[in-house]
Design brief:
Strand content: 15-25%
Number of strands: 11
Low-confidence stretches: none
Radius of gyration: 16 Å
Number of helices: 8
Largest sheet: 9 strands, mixed
Shape: globular
Distance between the termini: 16 Å
Amino acid sequence: MKLCVLENDVLDPELAARFSGFGDMFRRLFAAAGAHWSVEIFNTVQGQYPASYDDFDAVLLTGSRADSFSQEPWVLALRAQVEQLLQAKKKLLGVCFGHQLIALCLGAEVGRAPQGWGAGRMRYQWHTPQWAQGRTDIALLASHQDQVVALPAGATLLASSEFCPVAAFTVDQQVLCVQPHPEFVEDFSAYLLAKRRALLGEDQYSAATDSLALGHDGLHMARMMVAFVEGNL
C-alpha cells in the first residue's frame, strides 16, 4: 500500500526538532498500528503536490493552524486538489483541518466552534462499535477552534460529543475523517496548550493539561484508519 500525505502546516522549530512534522508523526503512528505502507509526504503550504495520485492507494490530509475556509491561496489550491480527488473517487483520510476541508468540499458548513477551543483529551461517543471492537466511546487528543457544523450529505456519523457534534464521519468506502488528532502524543499537546494558555484561560488550560495524564486512544483510532484504507472494515 502507498499513502500520500498532504501536510498542511510547518511546525514551530521546537516541535519540528522533536517530531519533524505531521507527516512523519502519521508515518510512525501507522507503523505502530501494523501498517506496512510506503508513505510520501508533500507540504501544501510550500506548494508541494505529487505529479500524479495514480500510484497512491489513499491520500491523507493533516491538521493545520490555518482555517479550512480561509481564502489564502495555498488553502484554495488545496481545496481544488481535494475536489478533484473526490471526483476521482480516491480514498481520503482527513484529520482536524483535513477533516474540515474535506467536509467543506462535500458541501458541509464549517466554522468557529461556538464553545471556543477544544483542547486536551476529549471523549467522544463512537456510533459504530463494530469498527472499534465493540467500544462505544473513544478518547483522543484535540486542538481546534473550528469544526464541522453539520454532517455532509450522504455521510455517516461515526463519532460525536456535546462539544463536537460531528467528530468523525465516513462516506461510503471512500472518505474517513476525524476532528481530533490520533497522531498527537502528550508532549505535543502540552506544548500547544502552553502556547495557547492565555487564549484558553487558566481554568481550561489546567483542566486540559491535567487530562493528558489519562491516556488516549490514538493507536486504536489509527488501527481503524488502517483497516479502512486496506478495505477491512
